[in-house]
Amino acid sequence: MFYLHRFLRLTPVYMIVIYIYTTLTPHFATGPMYSAVFNPNPVGYETGISYCQKYWWTNLLYINNVYPNDLMQECLGWSWYLANDMQFFIISPFIIYFLYHKAPVGIGICIGLLLTCFGSLIGLTISKDIEATPFPQNASRENFLGNSVYTKPYARISTYLVGMVLGYILYLCQGKVKMSRFVALLGWLVATVIGLSVVYGLYGTLHGNELNKGATVMYITFCRFAWAVALGWVSFACITGYGGPVNTLLSWPVWIPLSRINYCAYLLHPIIMMVFQYSLPTLIYFSDFLLIYFFLGNIVLSYSAAFIFSVCVEAPFMALEKLIFQRDRSV
Predict the structure, then answer these.
(1) Which of 159, 251, 260, 320 has its CB surrounded by the most CB atoms within 10 Å?
(2) Please, which residues have CB within 8 angstroms of residue 179's CB and are 6 or more apart in sequence?
(3) Exposure letters 48-73 (e unless 16+ CB within 10 A, then b)
(4) In the structure, what pLDDT confidence band is assigned to residue 328 with cuts at 50, 70 and 90?
(5) What is the DSSP string of 160-182?
(6) Which pLDDT belongs to residue 185?
(7) What distances in angstroms separate CA 158 from CA 57, 115, 228, one per listed residue?
């Protein structure tokens, strides 16, 4: 039931979104680029829809982050995250079992997986000469957002392990930890520095200042792990009573209804953005205000569509699962 519930929780909505994207999206709008980008039967080239027609089954099996190997060929390219999440979810009970019953073994497994992740990233970065830039600068070199290290489970498991270990620590201390004000402030300072370093660490590469080889390897290897550690501190501090105004903001009740439709918003928002972008009859002129306008519009449209989709699709499937398996928890 542990695995079946997870599969039924994610998959029906996921498959219906793929169906809508593959069959209905071509009819949502028109435009100079729209008919080409959303052509279900392209001749001489491939589209996202044609890739979904070929590889939708990899999404159903949650292996689309490893096959097809090219991110651009994946059906719903942004759904690589769901594949990683499901794969890590499958192995998580075994790790949790050892953490609970044989802590040294469980910790050893986590350390081993973490070192495997770091070793894979170091080896691939060096052997493939991967560049650490948010946007490709050299067509002959692979970017760290490319196929080798962006979607693969061996490159992403470090963040999942941080969450598991944090949960284990909170279980051991039962969410009660005593820290001095100095230690708490130091934790917030370190977490903030780490988080900002990850976000702005590649700022110089946008202005032609490429990282040297050592810095490139360091960033690609540890950036996601470091980001998870920074967010882990936020969770730890808030749960143990040292969150202050951050905990007040994150505990704001207004987030509760939004959290219930986040999954649908995640699945739908790229489709909404693409439909708008490719239906434009002309190119746009960049301005800060225009991007803010687009950003806010995309948020409103995405969550509006997610609410409708959640009510009409997600909630009924959750209620059906509850009826079939006599689950006591509310939908």
Answers:
(1) 159
(2) 187, 240, 242
(3) bbbbbbebbebbeebbbbbebeebeb
(4) low
(5) HHHHHHHHHHHHHHTT-----HH
(6) 94
(7) 27, 9, 8
